[in-house]
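Chain and backbone:
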Amino acid sequence: EVQLVESGGGLVQPGGSLRLSCTVSGFTFSSYAMSWVRQAPGKGLEWVSSISAGGGSTSYADSVKGRFTISRVDAKNTLYLQMNSLKPEDTAVYYCAKSPWIRSENRGQGTQVTVSS
C-alpha cells in the first residue's frame, strides 16, 4: 500500500520559513519523481515543485521560484520542501505526491501551512 505522510506545517508570519517533510512507504521511492502540490482555500490543486528520481533535476512554479527548495534523501524515503520568505498567498494545504501527482491515490493527506501576522 502506497503511503505518504507529510509533516512540518503550521502557522508562520510573513517572511518566515518552514520545512515540510514527507515520509513514504509502499513503493520504491528512489525510482520515482516526486512533487509537492498545494490547495488554497476555495481553489483547485496547484503544482508547486518536482524533483526527478535521483534528485538531479528540479523544477518550480513561478510563484515559488527562488523561495522554495525541494530535496530528497532516498536512504530515508523522505522528501522535503524548504519554504523561505513565505507570503500570505502561500497559505494552503501542502501535499507530497509520487508521479503522476494528479491521481489522488498518489498524494498524502496533506499538512496545513498558514502564513499570517
